Amino acid sequence: MTATEQQRTAPGRRTGDWWFRPVPLARIAVFRVIAYLFIPIDVFLTTAWVRAHADVPSEWYQPLLVARLLHLPTPTETLVVVVQWALVLAALAAASGRAPGLLGAAVFLLYGEWMVIAMSYGKVDHDRIAFLVALAVLPTIGRARFRDRRPSEAAGWAMAAVLVTVMLTYFLAAWAKIRFGGWDWPTGSTLTRAVLRRGTDLSDWTLELPWLLGTAQWVMLVLEFLAPLMLLVRSDRARIGLVLFLLGFHLMVYAGVTIIFLPHCVAILSILPWERLAGRFPRTTAAAPSRAVRAG
């Protein structure tokens, strides 16, 4: 490996290298299986209601901007069923690791159409963006095996893109709160209303402590605005701590008001150093990363 290649693969040499800091391919192999196997769960459980859009009058269809730009067809019963089963079958095939570019691209396109069908009837969720980005970048990496701990710049760029999107999901959520709700959002009764509508035995008691819910709104807003600090996380221990914190937050929200962003939580799992699971296996190769590995 030449000196130029060493400089390009060494993490932290330049600010711009943050986007291409090499990531072991084993991390991609594990996360790819998690992401693709989540899709059947999402299709048949999390977003099972999308199937009902096949029976909705066509005049209720208000296509998203991307659907208008691409001239996507109005959903019909046949289209919805075909997309549903093609997506599930493609995701199961992609989880095997075979043909990662072709099958991965098919999964991304089909899931994108599934989301267009889901969100073009007046409700748009913001918990899908990071997961969609993950599906978009996974096909760019190429083959990745569980025992392959070689560092890859292509994998590093893909995981950096997902991390940035996870961060922006929180930061832009805070921005939207202030943009549309103004400072009435943190000073109002947002969480009180949520507990009244969707509260559980674990959260109903907070209604007797209005100051607690008001404080929680401020804490939530501040933490979301501080989300860019995620990009400073580097060590494996810090990554694990960040994931535990984020997943703990979402579990707490679910326990309190039965709202959880499952696709976003799956995207968060990309932050974990999954290559540690490959530690019990011998390395695929002891050689330094090649151009082919960096290019995917």
Automatic annotation (TrEMBL):
One Gene Ontology CC term in the entry: endomembrane system
Membrane topology: Multi-pass membrane protein
Subcellular location per the Swiss-Prot or TrEMBL entry: Endomembrane system
HTTM-like domain ranges (all copies): 20-266
Source taxon at top rank: Bacteria
Keywords associated with the record: Membrane, Transmembrane, Transmembrane helix
Keyword flag Cytoplasm: no
InterPro entries recorded: HTTM-like
Membrane-spanning intervals of the chain: 29-50, 78-95, 102-122, 128-146, 158-176, 211-233, 240-262
SMART domains: HTTM (SM00752)
Protein name: HTTM-like domain-containing protein
The species this protein was found in: Blastococcus saxobsidens
